[in-house]
Amino acid sequence: MSTQITDKIEALFGERQTTVAKDLKLNIRRLVDDSSLSKEEATLTVIAVAKSLEFTEVLGAAREAAVALDISSEIIQEAEENAAIMGMLNIYYRTRHFIESYDTTAKEDYGAAKLRMMSLANPVMGKERFEMLAFAVSCVNGCEMCVTSHEKALLAIGSTREKIHDLVRIAAVLKGLRSLHA
Question: 11, 52, 85, 168: least buried by Cβ within 10 Å?
Fold first, then answer.
């Protein structure tokens, strides 16, 4: 059974029959339609990652799929906004990691982030789902500190490594599809 998301992606790349296009289309279909993630988890992940990648065509399809799955508008909005808060934090912590990797005194010199992050405390979608999206967006944004931090949080909550692996695969495939579409 295919979803609106994968049908939309198929329509976007239907004409393109290269080996790369076929691989990416088959990968996203398998990950969204038949992975360790629930349909809701996969759809919310696509929303957050597509927003982060500014992949508007897929974002629109994922929003429609979320509505069809009876996901509330507040949760859909929070999934999109996850890309914004994680974008801010990924830039900040990735930069701190770069600096601190060569300057051991930098951690004390810079101190606390002093960035408001209250949205992380009590997400509408629940902590596990928020962490899942934060992990996937952090993978796309390339922040090692955030990826490892969110992976650790997911494992502590009880998420499986299989789900974590599927989250990074969705992020990777969407990045590939976005590059192919650009």
Answer: 11
